[in-house]
Amino acid sequence: MSSLSRSRRLLPVAAVAAAAALLFTGCAGEPSPITKAVAGASPVNQPKNAIVSGIQPATGSVSGGTVTITGTNLEKVASVEVGGQAAAITQATADKAVVEVPAAQNFAAGAVPIAVTDTSGKPVATDGKTYTYQVVTPVDQQLAYAMAHWNNYNTAEYGDLNPVGGDCANFVSQTLIARGWQMNSEWYNHDAAADWSPAWGYVPAMDNYFRENAAKLGLTEYSFDQRDKIKLGDIVMFDWNDNDSLDHVQIVTGVHNDNGKITIQMAGHNEDNDYRDLDHTITVEHPGAIGHFWSLSK
Length: 298
What we know:
This protein has helices at residues 3-25, 33-40, 138-149, 155-158, 168-179, 198-201, 203-212, 214-217, 278-285, and strands at 51-56, 59-61, 65-72, 77-82, 85-92, 96-101, 110-118, 123-124, 130-134, 189-190, 195-196, 219-223, 235-239, 248-258, 261-268, 273-277, 290-296. By secondary structure, it is of the alpha+beta class. Strands 1, 2, 3, 4, 5, 6, 7, 8 and 9 form a 9-stranded mixed beta sheet that branches.
């Protein structure tokens, strides 16, 4: 067969190949519309990142509260921290997450950062958003006073009763004044403890005063087994020897529920402390001690 005949027979094959190349590449080497569409398509089920756009309210009580984080894909949020403390997520949907803000560290007012993490462990951008703790409620005022004076006695105003038996009741009474209570003819401390009543500075008399005036003062008595009723700022009475004579009093500065186990922390004088653990107090420090709470509604 001549070379001319072979060329004629190969021509149709070459033409088909060239046409196919034009179909898939387009003119002048440009991708065809079909190729462009396939290349530009988004991957199927491509994950979308959580985005935080707002926090409402952005301010609240130093005793804690509730905020709503808004944005998109927030069902992917795994954890939230406010001021470096874990904030429990109580509800999460695509456009919002409801969060329980913990009490401020040492009940200190001021702006703190908010950190959000997604389910993959990656941080979610918050655009520098912060939460501002403020002293806004009577309980806030009580706890702020307690944190300022648990180890820095306010002797100029209330004196120091440690030399005459202990300053624990004197301190608790001071925090109640900060909360908004008013002195009266039964409960008072005048002239830096130059003149004070037993109901103010002596634990058994204080407990009797609370019991006799519970309704007027907004007080409810609970046992140590009723910790689910206890709030920040409530009062804890102790009988170290279980001999029907009360020995000590403190106020509640921490209530923590860990899978149903409630722990209580307290501030007080004598053994000056800010977050003393109730269980450790009655099992290790004073084994067999008993007592009760006074919960405040005012």
